[in-house]
Structure formats: structure tokens, C-alpha cells
Amino acid sequence: MAIKVGIPRGLWFYDYYPLWKTFYEYLGAEVVLSRPTNKQILDMGVKNTVDEACLPVKVFHGHVIDLKDKVDYIFVPKIMSVYEKEYICPKFCGLPEMVFHSIKDLPQLIDVEINFNKSRKNLEETIYKFGYYITRDKEKIKKAYEKALENYSNYKMKLRNGYLPIDGKFVDFNNKLDKNIRSRIAIVGHTYNMYDSYTSMNLFNKLKKDKVDITVPEMIDFEIINKYANELEKKMFWSFGRKLLGSSMYFAQVQNVDGIIYISSFGCGIDSIIQDLFERNARKQGKIPFLLLTIDEHSGEAGINTRIEAFLDMIEWRKRNEGNLSAHG
Amino acid sequence: MKVTFPHMGNQYVGTKVLLEELGVDIIIPPKCSKDTLNTGVKYSPESICLPLKVNIGNYIESINMGADTIAITGSCGPCRFGYYSVLQKELLKEAGYDIDVILLDPPQGDYKLFFERIFKLTGTKNPYRIIKALKKAYNVLKAVDDLEDMTYYKRPREKVKGSVDKYYDTFHKDVRMVYGYKAVSKLIQETKERILSVEEDPNRDVIKIGIVGEIYTIIEPFVSLDIEKKLGNLGVEIDKSLKVSRWLNEHLFMHPLGLSTEKETWESAEPYLKTMVGGHARETIGYAVRFAKSNFDGIIQVYPLGCMPEIVAQSILPTVEKDYNIPYLCLIVDEMTGEAGYMTRLEAFVDLLRRRKETFKGEKLLSGY
Ligand code: SF4
Ligand code: SF4
């Protein structure tokens, strides 16, 4: 019987899962994903994490619990750093340990350290370590990784073109040509806050139904993001944070959207800084409508809906008024 | 140029010596107080961690006293502290304070810029002078650490309550008044002798608690609500995982690696936490283990609300508690933390430890050891 590797549908999932899924499948393992986030998963996560943890970490714990009796291994890498001189978040660095000490009766964790902070020299060795859980065949592991990378870049391409992985399944958000578009909104946030439809309260589909054209950092060229992020006085050393801040700055400067929604989770240390720097920056650039949605396990969908509606109305009102102004000017 | 800097416990004594030895004009921010915090909270984003808020309060109080330049140290991740400097600059600007900020971040390759900033701050390009001043500052910090250690030992044992703090508080008032390495060292020495001579009650049953947690919180008494005094008065001798001389090592000498005590701490943490995760989570775990091994009666972790590395540590500490059979209490502080509730939790914990110790003694007697 094939070895079963469980991949939790949380945190880095929306950024990397196609890579690791392909990798382990090529090596002959059966990959099991946890179910999309639901009430039960959230509750289990909340119950098994320290109160102070942020929502995404709690949700992640829920996903691990969802998998733990179904698989031989659970994939919880120790992601220290994916780019040189960058990190993601202290909690990503300590994730396997948090999981290990919070949840009882776990199968073995695949908790290999990914650390490219100094350089990428250890890439090959890192990949082998991930593969050894399934096979000692280095050639095969190498091949699996090549395949995985291929699949990964296809995945990124799809995102770039507007197919977004809502709960891990592609939904087409490429409706630029639709004549009935009300407005164009950028949604910015950590991928696990945005694409998990349970925690984002179905934000994307809601906006789509409302005839809003959506754009996200994943659709923007990495070079552009970097160019804007480099305007900061000091290197932004959080990889995800850098992406979020760089793309928000880009949206605010080129004004190719009518507004920005920043979706953040309560207690996120990274967001506390990114969001603040962005707001400051946006104010300097001249007003771009900005809505901050902070979610936690107690957020109510009704309240969020009202705020989104008000935001969209405000944008439309603004657009109409601007139209009037220019017509008179 | 009148330079100021943020408070962090006794750090100001070392920084004062460093800058005074180099002839730099300084303004020491007033002792952290409720006012400091309120000012900081007013100008800081709500969701930022507490140390930044207090720092902002320090700057503004110093500016009101005439400071025109701020020296800030930093890091390059993974935690928020690495971005404090940039954010603080923005916050001050927005609050309407036009002030020069000298960022002393680890160089990360750009030594030229780093030294330019050092030269700007110190007003000299003579590296020997700077190194000499640094050495003196380091000596002073070590001495202040020792002094503080002595208060940890003496407080729970003093015959007359408040004797230690009478001398210790006087020291903090007086040290602002004297100038330079010699005078500061002398004052430290005198205070040490005074505290040493405080009469002890030989019959006190003193218990020991190890304090671990976020560096700023455990070093700055204002933020931890004077935990060392509170526990001392409850008859508890304490020790802390992090001391202020360590901060200097990390931030000015910039060689956080390779100290021998560091190695021991990291090795103690290793079965629980394999790598650093930012902040001082690894020290929190490592010292919890070390304290447990050296027969402390309990562990208290203190950290500011939302502190990411300490949340990682908090998830792990219950396992240490179980493995070493040592009670553990987690205290989280923010601007809303009330004196009364905090004190109640400390008292309850100390009671628990005392009862435990009694039972343990009883068992020992019964079993004939
Ligand atoms: S980046 Fe924010 S939301 Fe994500 S794990 Fe870290 S603290 Fe939590
Ligand atoms: S270690 Fe804690 S207090 Fe320090 S910057 Fe990080 S989150 Fe803030």
C-alpha cells in the first residue's frame, strides 16, 4: 500500500501545495489533503492552540487534526526562509514545534527545515531530506522535484492569469472584459486569509457576484512588486509581507484599481506593520479608498457584508462624482 | 546635538557611559511611567507590540526635555523589532516631531553606511576611542547586572522590608546626576556595598522562580509591573533568562553567536525547539529547562500581548513543565494590564509553589530521606 502523506490546507498551502503534492505523488506516495476549512476544523484548531495564537495558526492546527488519523506522515515543514535575507514569520519558523507540542497522538511530521536565508546552496540537500521519507533513491527525488517545479510554475501562471485557488480549487476571476463591471478592487492579504473561503467569509465569490473585478498580488509581476518594495527605507525582510506591501504600494501609485481591501487576521504581527506602513504610504500618494477587514474566530459574516457593501457604495459614489467633476471641468 | 535613546531597564546606565565617554551630549528619558505609556499609545498603531509604544513615549518625553537626535538599534528580522526603527521614524514625523534618527542596524554587508552612522553619533572617527568607550560601557553594564542580581537575592531575605529598594531606587536617581565611567562605577560599587550590608532574616523560607520571556518585558521593570520587586516582597528569589549586558552584546558588539552560556541554553532548548524563531523564544525555552534543572521551584513567562516568538514558546512550555515537573505560569502584559489582577495571579502562583514545597518536604520525611 502506498505511503500516505497528509498536507494540511492552511498557511503556506495556497502558495506551495501543488509543488509538494506533485513531489510526493511522483515518489509514489498517496497525498491526502485535509478538508476545506469548516466549523469543526476551526473549533478543533481553536481548542488545541494557545489562545494568543493568530487565527491562521489555529486553523492550521485544525487541519493537522483533521489529517492525523488518516495518514502516515503529515507535512509540516519548518519554513525559516525562502529567499535570501528574508523570513516569513516567527510562527512559520516554529510551526512544527507548535504543532508537535499542542496536538497529541500525531503521526510522524515531515518537519524538514527550509532555510535559504544565507544562500540556496543547501537546496539539493533539503530536497533529498524531504524525499527520504518515501525513498532513498536520490535520482528519483531529483526527478520528482523537477516535476514538482514544473507543476508549481504552471500553478503560478494560472494565478497570474486570474484563476484563484479558492479552497485549493481554481475559480476564474478573469472578468476584465465583462461590460457590467461595477468597480475594480484589489484584495491584499496573506494567501491563507484570502483563499480560505471559510475564514474570508466567502469574500471573493461575494465580490464576483457583485460584479466587482478583482485583482490580487498573485496576478502582479514579481519584478513590479520588488520595484515598489525597494522604495522602502529599509529592506522589508518578510517575504509575504514584502509582496503585500509592494503590491499595495503599486496599486496606490498607479491607481489602476478603485479601491483596496486588506484582509488581515487579528493578532497578526506582520500585518500590524505592513498595514500601518501601507496606510501611511497611501495617504501620501493621495487617497485611494481602503478597507481593512480584520478577521478572527468571532467575526460575524453579517457585519463584514455590511462593511463591504458600504465600501463598494462609497467607491461608486466617488466614481460618479469624479465623473461629474471632470464633465464640468 | 542632544542624543536620546529608548529605555530598557538598566540599559540606560551603559548607554550613558558609552556616550558620555565619547563626549556626546545626552538626554536620558525620564523613568518609564503611566504617562510615558499613554503618550506612546496615543501615537502608535494599536496592534503593534507594547515595547514600541513605550519607546515612542520615551522619545517624546526626551524631546520635550530638549533632545534633537534619537539613536535606535535594530535587527534584520525575523521579528517586528527589525522594523521598529522605520516605523518609529514615521510615527514621530506624523506626531509632528522633526527629529534626527540615527539607525544602528546590523550592517548586513553595508559597513560603510553603518560606520558613517556610528561616526555621526559619536562625533569621532577614531575607532580606538569608540572601542574603548564600548568596553567601558560593557563593564558598567556587567556591574549593573551584578548589582541587580544581588537585589534578586537580597529582597526576599531582607529583615526590614524595603531596605534593598531604598538603596536601589536611590542609585537610579543618583546615577543620572553623575558623569562618565569613573563616577558611575564608583556609584555602583557604593550601592553594592550598601545593599550587601542589608541585614538578612536567617529564618526566611525562600523559594526560587525563574523568569523567562520577551527581552524587553523582562528587563524593563515598568512593563513587567515590577515583577522582581513584587516577587521579592513575597519571599521569592528570582533569576532571569536575559540580562541587559546581553543586549549590548547582541546589538552593539553584534556577535550574538558563540558565547558559551548561549551554547548551553540552546542545547537545553534543542529537544523542544530546534532553531531560533526570532525574538528570544529559544532562550525562553532553554532557560526554562536550565532553571528546572537547577532546582528552581517554578517558571514564569512574561511577554507583551501578540508577541510572536513568545507565542511559539508558550505552546511548548507546557511540555517542559510536564517533563521536569515544575509549575509554569504565563503572564501577558499590555497597556490594559491591571495591577490588582496581576498581583493576585502572582500571589496564587507563589502560594501554590509553597504548598508544593511543603508537601514535597513532608514526603521526603516520611520516606526517610
Ligand atoms: S504572518 Fe501573521 S497570520 Fe501568518 S502566522 Fe504569522 S502572525 Fe499568524
Ligand atoms: S519579539 Fe515580541 S515584542 Fe519583540 S518585536 Fe517581536 S513580537 Fe514584538
First CA to last CA of chain A: what distance? Answer: 74 Å
Q: How are strands sequenced across the largest beta sheet of chain B? A: 2-1-3-4
Percent in helix of chain B: 55-70%
Oligomer: heterodimer
**Into which percentage range does the β-strand content of chain A fall?**
15-25%
Query: Describe the biggest sheet of chain A?
Result: 4 strands, parallel
Which structural class matches the secondary elements of chain B? Answer: alpha/beta
CATH class of the largest domain in chain A: Alpha Beta
Sheet with most strands: strand arrangement of chain A: 2-1-3-5
Rg of chain B, Cα atoms, Å:
21 Å
Write the layout of secondary structure elements.
The complex is a heterodimer of chains A (329) and B (369).
Chain A: E1 4-7, H1 13-26, E2 30-33, H2 39-47, H3 55-67, E3 73-75, E4 78-81, H4 90-93, H5 95-102, E5 108-110, E6 113-115, H6 123-132, H7 138-160, E7 163-166, E8 169-172, E9 183-189, H8 191-194, H9 203-209, E10 212-215, H10 222-229, H11 239-254, E11 259-265, H12 269-284, E12 290-295, H13 301-328
Parallel strand pairs in A: 1-2, 1-3, 3-5, 4-6, 9-10, 9-11, 11-12
Antiparallel strand pairs in A: 7-8
Chain B: E1 2-4, H1 11-21, E2 25-26, H2 34-43, H3 50-64, E3 69-73, H4 81-94, E4 100-104, H5 111-122, H6 127-154, H7 163-174, H8 180-196, E5 207-213, H9 215-219, H10 227-233, E6 236-240, H11 244-253, H12 260-269, H13 281-293, E7 298-304, H14 308-324, E8 328-333, H15 339-367
Parallel strand pairs in B: 1-2, 1-3, 3-4, 5-6, 5-7, 7-8
Helix pairs in contact in B: 1-6, 2-3, 6-8, 6-11, 7-8, 12-13, 13-14
The structure holds iron/sulfur cluster (SF4) (2 copies).
One iron/sulfur cluster (SF4) binds next to helix 3 and helix 12 of chain A.
